[in-house]
Amino acid sequence: MAKVEVAPLRxxxxxxxxxxxxxxxDGKDLTRWNNRVIxxxxxxxxxxxxxxxxxxxxxxxLNPVGMFTAVAVVSGVFLASVWAAENRSVINNFKRQNxxxxxxxxxxxxxxxxxxxxxxxxxxxxxxxxLALIFAHASFRLRNMKNKLENKIEGAGLKRSPMGILLExxxxxxxxxxKIQSFLEGKLKE
Length: 190
Known about the structure:
Elements: H1 12-15, H2 30-43, H3 45-62, H4 64-87, H5 89-97, H6 99-117, H7 120-140, H8 145-155, H9 162-169, H10 173-189
Helix pairs in contact: 2-7, 2-8, 3-4, 3-7, 4-5, 4-6, 4-7, 5-6
């Protein structure tokens, strides 16, 4: 098993090269859109982490108590959902078949708990805003050859990264490994 390596910080002109490297995802081909998002999450993970930290710190300085409450609630809900998915086959099947629904359920549960504690706006700005920005970039940013190569290396297990581990926990990496295995088996038969 490969050791975990932090992906390099991609230069600004690669992360945001200009409008020509962005395109609206095809809403009719969800598999392709999902692959684009996963590829970009793996390739730009360090850039996304810095973006999230910048927004997170900005909101944290504006409302530190609300920020602590939001972090505690969302972390607790996320950990509980991962534990439940590992220990309850019904939840695990739902997560594998409908990752978006699973993430929405976690976010709605977090929202409901935060609304009881009065920290909804902190949650919306400190946690949801970075997630929305990351998802928008990962959805609209077109992949390049280097991006695709890095993802094949990660998918084959030759290299591991923190985002790869997170996607594995969410059940997204196994799908890619099966595709790579099928591709390699097809090439071997030829």
